[in-house]
């Protein structure tokens, strides 16, 4: 067994060395961009060469098999979520660790039954990825692209960016990009159409109250609060799609708990990173003075469902909004 592992590692290192040399030679001819997803397009409108399509991404171009069968997804939110939504199960995936608990975003374990967990999303195991013999790796810019591309064709999926304006919600752009990589654009549009229909259904159910409800969403951890940002977190984008009065934050900033008065709205959703019970907030001297807490309209919502940048997560947020927004939840 040890000799087999040494052989595998030797072969992998050899592949990596070859790829690094090739990467150095081609880097001069590759224009690396740092734009939002809307500015990263499939080359020549999904140019097909032989048995693959050429996909442009932040680190260059990749020839993707027309029908990849062995996909490894290295991020739960921006890769695994849209893959599962499109009905595609990868052979390998990564997970995150929050509060000592392994989570895969808004994807259920049943959705990845039989697939292999290849490590944490910020540090996947290259050896495990290699052993799976993938024909396509979907990664982010934070992963070691030259090393991964030595194993299999690798596409770098764009990440959300606070600094560059977007035409629409990131989770929608993200789904469309993954669908374009895999040639599933029609299916993606049907998924987004179903999402929009659910938005319209909830609007109709709320009626005139929609223009009157004021909603806040906060993350809470170690005495700090911050709120989801539009065109980044699906939570904010779903609330905006509904047309609710939503307290928008300064992007990427957190505040001490004393600032929670800024979120004194009719309804308060709390994404509790410390997994404290609701009683902690109901009895807290600062939270307890908020209108939503006094009126029993403060709700703890699961991190796994609400801290999301994927279409599956957006629909799970909608599930909770159907549950909590009506007057008598």
Overall CATH class of the largest domain: Alpha Beta
Using only C-alpha atoms, the radius of gyration works out to: 22 Å
Number of helical segments with 4 or more residues? 11
**CATH architecture annotation of the largest domain:** 3-Layer(aba) Sandwich
* Gross geometry: globular
Topology, number of strands: 16
CATH fold-level name of the largest domain: Rossmann fold
The termini sit apart by 58 Å
Structural class of the helix and strand makeup? Answer: alpha/beta
Query: What fraction of residues sit in β-strands?
Result: 15-25%
* Percent range of helical residues: 25-40%
CATH superfamily of the largest domain: Nitrogenase molybdenum iron protein domain
**Low-pLDDT stretches:** 1-8, 15-46
Order of helices and strands: HEEEEHEEEEHEHEHHEEHEEEHHEHH
Which descriptors would you attach to this protein?
7-stranded mixed beta sheet; 2 domains; alpha/beta; single chain; Rossmann fold; globular; 6-stranded mixed beta sheet; disordered N terminus; 329 residues
Task: Describe the protein in words.
Residues 71-329 form the Fe/B12 periplasmic-binding domain. Belongs to the bacterial solute-binding protein 8 family. The protein has eleven helices and 16 strands. The chain has 329 residues and is of the alpha/beta class. Strands 4, 5, 6, 7, 8, 9 and 10 form a seven-stranded mixed beta sheet that branches. Strands 11, 12, 13, 14, 15 and 16 form a six-stranded mixed beta sheet that branches. The protein is globular. Residues 1-8 and 15-46 have low confidence and may be disordered.
